[in-house]
Amino acid sequence: MNSVNRALRYLPERTANAVRASAALYGGVFQEIRLYRGGRTAIVAEGKTVRTDVYCSEKEFDDTVRRMCGNSLYAHADTIRDGYIFTEDGLRVGICGRAVMSGGSVELITDFSSLCIRLSSRREGYAKKFLPHIILGERLCGMLIFSAPGVGKTTALREIAAAFAENGCGVRCAVVDTRFEITNGISRDGLDVLYGYPRSVGMEIAVRTLSPQVVICDEIAGEEDARAVLQCVSAGCAVIASAHAGTLGQLVSAVHLRSLLSLNVFETLAHLTRKDGTVVCSFTSGGSVQ
Amino acid sequence: VNIQIPGAMMLLAAALLIGAEMRRNMRVRIRALENAIALAEHFKQRIELFNMPLNEIYKEYIIPGREECLSDAQIEQLCGEMGEGAEILRDFFAKLGENYRADALGLCTYTLEQLRKTLERAKTEYPSRLKLCTALPILISLSLIILIL
């Protein structure tokens, strides 16, 4: 069952029908389904948000959340606190609500108000664009893939991981899959997958115990992650990671990434943009932004 | 007279059977309450130790004396056997998955307390009810026999 059908199973029937009808306008290809408690359901297709005419009632919304949690909210508390639900069948759903704070940190989220179901997709052959910049003869090079949200960073990482797994490149590859997204729907044969580990912890464990040549991880988001990347590179691993930034300027202005870029940790920077509904990838040498 | 004596015998036999059935129901109820307590304890332990989702706990649990793993139908059957106290178990399963861990564990503790109290009450009442279940149908049948004869 593909991710669209898996996602639609959780939705109320009339909402699922509305999503199908809206998606049909884009050839059935879309990236996200967005549900708002008491509001109109929307899909994201070709980078645009398209609202349907169907409202999701409060009860329908609450039932959807309950189904996504497998009727076990307590078992999903940690991921909900981090802003998402990971369903039993591998969907990642962003969730918004009211944060209840305790001692300066988020203790739990309540009064859920919106859901963003992100549909993981495979783009066969997509990795071919990236691999020539990663495997240079005998040498493995690091790469930072950046783009605005929703363009396809995780898809790119997934395809690169799949290429290492499926093509038998002979490269020892560890994937730190903090949010269960990167390896979702791909073969893990030949990959060391650290599933659900915080990035910094996962990278440290990978380097210490798995002797990887390449470490793949998603969304370098803070100083701690940046330190872990540096630790990996110092240990001789190539790191392939992603970061949120719409432009190169925005990337350079991110404080936690500055040190990594100045040390030329990533040999290649891959910038993903969406033009006329298709994803365009441009490559820059990491050294050029020092 | 020919009909009266067999009729009286049948009344007595029916009284004995009714008494036996009532006693059996009481034993079944006590066993059901014990099973419900074991069930709630298992859920509490699995949530407390492993944060296990409900569907996984369902898959691994078998009520003593049953062959298949736990299902909603089995829970409903257990509730049916429990009589008083069934609502406690129904509420438990209706609300358990809607809560975060602390509240879910609180609900487990509350449910266990209530079920234990119900079981204790049922066990305390058991000897006196046992006598009642034996004596009452016989006495009624004897009264009827006296009236008939």
Average residue pLDDT of chain B = 89
Structure class of chain B: mainly alpha
- Shape annotation of chain A: globular
Looking at the structure, what is the overall shape of chain B? elongated
Quaternary state of the chains:
heterodimer
Biggest sheet features of chain B: none
Largest sheet of chain A, described in full? 7 strands, mixed
The separation of the N and C termini of chain A measures 46 Å
Q: Regions of chain B with pLDDT < 50 over 5+ consecutive residues?
A: none
Question: Could you tell me the strand content of chain A as a percent range?
Answer: 25-35%
What does this structure look like?
The complex is a heterodimer of chains A (290) and B (149). With 290 residues, chain A is an alpha/beta fold. Chain A has ten helices and 15 strands. In chain A, the strands form three sheets. Chain A has a seven-stranded mixed sheet with strand order 11-10-12-13-9-14-15, with helices on both faces. Chain A has a six-stranded antiparallel sheet with strand order 3-2-1-6-5-4. In chain A, a hairpin with a 2-residue loop joins strand 14 and strand 15 (278-285). In chain A, helix 5 crosses helix 6, helix 7 runs parallel beside helix 8 and helix 8 runs parallel beside helix 10 (255-262). Chain A is globular. Chain B is 83% helix and 0% strand. Chain B contains five helices and no strands. The longest helix of chain B is centred in the last third of the chain and has 48 residues, at 101-148. The N and C termini of chain B lie close together (8 Å). The model of chain B has no long low-confidence stretch (mean pLDDT 89). Chains A and B meet through loops of A and helix 5 of B.
